[in-house]
Amino acid sequence: MSVSVQPMPADPIHEGAAPGAEVLRPHAEDAFAGELAALAARDERPRPPRWKLSPWAVATYLLGGTLADGTVISPKYVGPRRIVEVAVATLATDRALLLLGVPGTAKTWVSEHLAAAVSGDSTLLVQGTAGTPEEAIRYGWDYARLLAHGPSRDALVPSPVMRAMAEGRTARVEELTRIPADVQDALITVLSEKTLPIPELGEEVQAVRGFTLIATANDRDRGVNDLSSALRRRFNTVVLPLPESAEAEVAIVARRVDQIGRALDLPAGTDGLAEIRRVVTVFRELRDGVTSDGRTRLKSPSGTLSTAEAISVVTGGLALAAHFGDGVLRAGDIAAGLLGAVVRDPAADRVVWQEYLETVVRERDDWHDFYRACREVTG
Ligand SMILES: Nc1ncnc2c1ncn2[C@@H]1O[C@H](COP(=O)(O)OP(=O)(O)OP(=O)(O)O)[C@@H](O)[C@H]1O
Ligand SMILES: [Mg+2]
User: Where are the coiled-coil regions (predicted)?
Assistant: First the structure.
């Protein structure tokens, strides 16, 4: 009896995915490699040591613009120019940058793009959680080697922060305030002395020029593990605001939905703008506790109703329209997602939502389809 041997399928985890393979979410430096290369080629301003671009070009990468030769750089962050300039200027000094703000104000997004533009690498990342250990900030050990050969550089597993220091790159720490206070404090020496001691080896890793650190923290998490004042003093804090106007927020949502839709191969929405306007209006009115004409006071639900959530409501709606509708985004496609975003607490939020539907949505002449769709899912 012969047994046919099937060739083993390729193992993408151990062999490493081929470059350009179908990654679900490419890193910023890969997704925008073309723009970064164009900026680098035309950037004649001075670059700080080990920076891929000048501070001016980094700001242009984030805010968008047109280069002298006509190359268009798409805006990544929509918001006050000065905020981006202050953030970039901070990175050009030896201070670390703390991006602070309510949920969904693009802190993570800005941090990733800053690291991509400054160092060409946004992957030196520590994700902060209540369980983040000190090793994630300092270093750990490869126990097999440690047991076999004792402590040595070979057995040491550097953290992303240690690598960034040694290579003069940007390290990122996400959700800094969720990290337990004693673990956070491991950053104090890194930021003030620019060195990471390794007592087991009697050595240290000294940061080389180009090393910077960007942390993000959520306003609402403050108090969970408040930043110690010693650590806070080592950061320049930049607060990312909510979009200043409904139009700005509509533009942000429309742009991101378009990008995400293309990445997911959703058919292009012909005219989703009308529905995006409504989602943004509902979010802003409930968030602000007053209708956009300023006439009616409203109760706010418990959720954050951030721009990021508006983006997911619309993206979800587009998928419904594309796969189960006629491809045009309609009120019925966004109603369910909207309800899910607004009603977080099933009892209290539902009352708030129903009151909003009956007193505001119902009365708007051109919102009848939207009112019906929302009533249908609200039950
Ligand atoms: N002002 C803005 N300009 C561009 N994109 C924005 C803006 N505000 C929000 N977004 C979009 O919102 C999405 C979510 O942003 P991000 O995850 O960075 O928020 P965050 O502030 O880190 O939130 P969290 O506190 O929940 O971690 C991103 O896709 C981003 O593009
Ligand atoms: Mg974030």
Answer: none
**What's the CA-to-centroid distance between 110 and ligand 2, angstroms?**
9
Centre of ligand 2 from the C-alpha of residue 98, in Å: 12
User: What class has domain 25-239?
Assistant: alpha beta
pLDDT for residue 328: 85
Read off the pLDDT of residues 334-375 as tens digits, 9 standing for 90 and up: 998 999 999 988 889 999 999 999 999 999 999 999 999 999
Q: If residue 125 lies in a helix (H) or strand (E), which one and from where to where?
A: strand 125-127
Q: Render pLDDT for 203-223 as a digit per residue (tens, 0 to 9).
A: 999 999 999 999 999 877 655
Q: What's the gap in Å between 245 CA and the centre of ligand 2?
A: 22
CB of residue 62 inside a 6 A radius of ligand 1: no
96-101 sheet: strands from edge to edge: 125-127, 170-174, 212-218, 96-101, 235-239
Write the residue with the smallest CA distance to atom 27 of ligand 1. 103
The ligand minimizing its distance to the Cα of 252 is 1
Answer for the pair 188, 235: CB distance below 8 angstroms, yes or no. no
- Is the CB of 104 inside a 6 Å radius of any atom of ligand 1? yes
Q: How far is CA 140 from the centre of its chain?
A: 27
Separation of CA 193 and ligand 1 centre (Å): 32
- Extract the tokens encoding 299: 């109760």
Q: Is residue 325 lining ligand 1, measured as CB closer than 6 Å?
A: no
* pLDDT bucket at 156, cuts 50 / 70 / 90: very high
Q: What phi, psi does 184 have (nearest 5°)?
A: -55, -40
Query: Which ligand is the nearest neighbour of the Cα of 112?
Result: 1
The predicted model scores a pTM of: 0.90
Q: pLDDT (tens digit, 9 = 90+) per residue, 297-316?
A: 999 999 889 999 999 999 99
Q: Is the pLDDT of residue 264 over 80?
A: no
C-alpha 44: how far from chain center? 29
Which residues fall within 8 angstroms of residue 120, CB to CB, at 6 or more apart?
29, 36, 52
